[in-house]
Design goal:
The chain is α+β, with helices and mostly antiparallel strands and 197 residues long. Helix content is 23%, strand content 33%. The protein binds fe (ii) ion (FE2).
């Protein structure tokens, strides 16, 4: 096994442990047991190095997991989901995600999708929605979550937040970055769309 594969498998094993320790995750969706590591070409984004270099002030109960994910950063296919016509350039410098597990992820499965989501400090991720049911799980850092018909909440490490199908939501960071898992089930073929305010 080469070292890049080791980095991916380390991350997968840490996430698998998380599913055992956190019932919110296993109750939301079963962790797939037949994941196949594909050879996807890495793609950088402005946040690639920010995550890779985030080694201090982690604000996490999951240091080992944070490090496993941060070590993946240079090896994954980063995406942004939106373009400059939809969001401002500042946002695109501060936001990125990669599909670690899923139909087009590094670990292929058709059973669920797990995106790793990074948001820099002082960032506003505008209101958006999507068909998939979604569970956010905070790995490290902190952010404010707003969603329609629900009280807003500041979430930190190990906290979760569920979004129903098409329920609008927005995320804001202030003095902390946030690293989270975004887990999708049911109808996860369709991407996220911004909502005009
Ligand atoms: Fe979402």
């Amino acid at each position: 096994m080469n070292s890049t594969q080791d980095i991916f498998n380390k991350a997968k094993n840490e996430i698998k442990k998380l599913w055992i320790d956190h019932k919110e995750l296993s109750n939301f969706v079963t962790f797939p047991n037949n994941l196949v590591l594909k050879n996807l070409k890495p793609q950088k984004a402005p946040v690639t190095d920010k995550l890779f270099n985030w080694n201090e002030n982690l604000n996490t109960n999951l240091t080992e997991l944070h490090r496993a994910i941060s070590n993946l950063s240079p090896h994954v296919n980063w995406e942004q989901g939106y373009n400059e016509k939809e969001v401002d350039k500042d946002f695109l410098n501060k936001y990125g995600f990669f599909e670690l597990i899923g139909p087009s992820g590094h670990f292929e499965t058709s059973e669920m999708a797990l995106y790793v989501n990074f948001l820099d400090k002082n960032t506003y991720y505008p209101w958006h929605n999507h068909e998939a049911e979604e569970l956010y799980f905070i790995v490290s850092g902190e952010a404010k979550f707003e969603s329609k018909d629900q009280d807003e909440e500041i979430l930190s490490s190990t906290k979760t937040r569920f979004h129903k199908s098409f329920q609008p939501h927005a995320i804001t960071t202030i003095e902390n970055k946030v690293l989270s898992f975004v887990i999708w089930k049911n109808k996860f073929e369709h991407i996220s769309k911004l909502i005009k305010e």
